[in-house]
Amino acid sequence: MSSTRRRATVVLAVVALAVSACSSRQRFAAEEPRWAAPVSVTEIVKLSQAGVPPDVIVYKVNYSGLVYYLNEEQYDSLRELGVTPKVIDYMQDTYDQALEAHPNLAKDEYLACWYLGWDGFWYGGGPWGFHPDC
Prior knowledge:
Structural class: mainly alpha
């Protein structure tokens, strides 16, 4: 086999491996669970202040699968910190959708179906969703 032919074979093998690696990586990324990257309220504020477009933040929030349990005063504070109305509306929608799917959440006066995040905000859902009793 000539050296030119050998080089061509090596180049083709490298290209085939690169294409194979790229397609495998895309496949694994698509299989990643939607809740794999929870987005805290604090992160939402930081993203907003960094100028990340609202559509990108909404996408991240949707991908996270979290439900936000905030009161109007907390939402007002988020507005003052630069979180856009579009993002806040979507955060509120997560709660409204959770209420539709789990009506008992409205009666959860002791927040048994929620967990207190490291940043002092209440969250629900997550990797396993809400408990069936919620």
